[in-house]
Amino acid sequence: MTNSRHELLWTSIATVDLHDTGEGHPERTERLPAVAAGLAVPAIAEATRRFDGRKATMDELSLAHNRSHLEKLEAFVTGGGGAIDPDTVTSFGSWDTALWAAGSGLAAIDELEQGHASAAFVGIRPPGHHATATRAMGFCLVNNVAVAAAALADRGERVAIIDWDVHHGNGTQDIFWDDPRVLYASIHEHPAYPGTGSASEVGGDRARGTNVNVPLPRGATGDVALAAFDQVIGPIAAAFEPTWVLISAGYDAHRADPLANLEWSAGDYALLTQRVVGLAPQPGRTVVFLEGGYDLAALTNSITATAAELTGVRHDVEPPTSGGPGRDAVASAATRHIVGLEKP
């Protein structure tokens, strides 16, 4: 861990969370208290400050989503909700919660632009990175990180989204597929839900090379994820020269998580955080958005590891992992993106 202390802003929508997914659903209300517990470690708590989120407006959501789709989704949810698909369940309060989730990311950007801290962590649910411009899916209603990235891009910023959720962020990829203002890069398990995210998916004609996927096989450990960053994502992101870095921070690649098959630890998330934050051009240009992570103890420990890096606080976490498969997948992705087949 580093020694230089930095202030971390964070928010949680736990007090306004009305998104009821029903008994037994892994994406449940208890996730947000687990996040708060991860930030309550005394040394980290001393280096953090809460800020208030807000609701996003329909105009703000429409920066990343088709407005007609949003209106139909709102009507369905506020009419009582129900199952959108076998994974994605809504209740009457889910739409209001989704507005808070997306708006809190925008509020974080506002806070950082005023020079209030070196980074921000947004503790929100439902997650967002599977939501496409026209479809809610995969536990996700609104794509929180995409709404924030689109708002920044519309103001002339260059935005890098780094997604380390164990599942590929097909929705974020879809929204920015042909948008050269936004770099989307993902490390994820493959094959796994939703089935997208091969290394050959590199972006549309106007944005070729600004979509970067490093798919890893089941059993991959944290050292392979770090190699994916060091050999593929890091160099491409540095060449992109982002003015803002947004992290789709899923913690479901942890070896304890019930929904995936990677073998990472909290220590691996600390090392990933350290690397990704280094992409930002200056302090105050990094926002972390909660995505997945369904084992509550692993989620708490991984949040602590992330926050320790963001604040520069020394804190003992689980040792990083190593020795798993996937180096060949990293080498293949590096050949495609770095050697010249699909340079940004």
Short description, anyone?
This protein is α/β, with parallel strands linked by helices. Helix content is 36%, strand content 14%. The chain has an eight-stranded parallel sheet, with helices on both faces. Strands 3-4 form a two-stranded antiparallel sheet.
Question: What does this protein look like?
Answer:
The protein is an alpha/beta fold and 344 residues long. It has one domain: Histone deacetylase domain (Arginase, Chain A, 3-Layer(aba) Sandwich). Helices cover 36% and strands 14% of the residues. It has eleven helices and ten strands. The chain has an eight-stranded parallel beta sheet with strand order 2-1-5-10-9-6-7-8, with helices on both faces. Strands 3-4 form a two-stranded antiparallel ribbon. Strand 6, helix 7 and strand 7 form a beta-alpha-beta unit. Helix 1 runs parallel beside helix 10 and helix 5 packs across helix 6.
Present the secondary structure layout.
Elements (H helix, E strand, L loop, with lengths): L7 E5 L18 H8 L3 H5 L1 E3 L7 H4 L5 H12 L3 E2 L5 E2 L3 H20 L5 E5 L20 H11 L4 E5 L6 H6 L6 E8 L21 E6 L5 H19 L3 E6 L16 H12 L8 E5 L5 H16 L15 H12 L6
Parallel strand pairs: 1-2, 1-5, 5-10, 6-7, 6-9, 7-8, 9-10
Antiparallel strand pairs: 3-4
Helix pairs in contact: 1-10, 5-6, 8-9, 8-11, 9-10
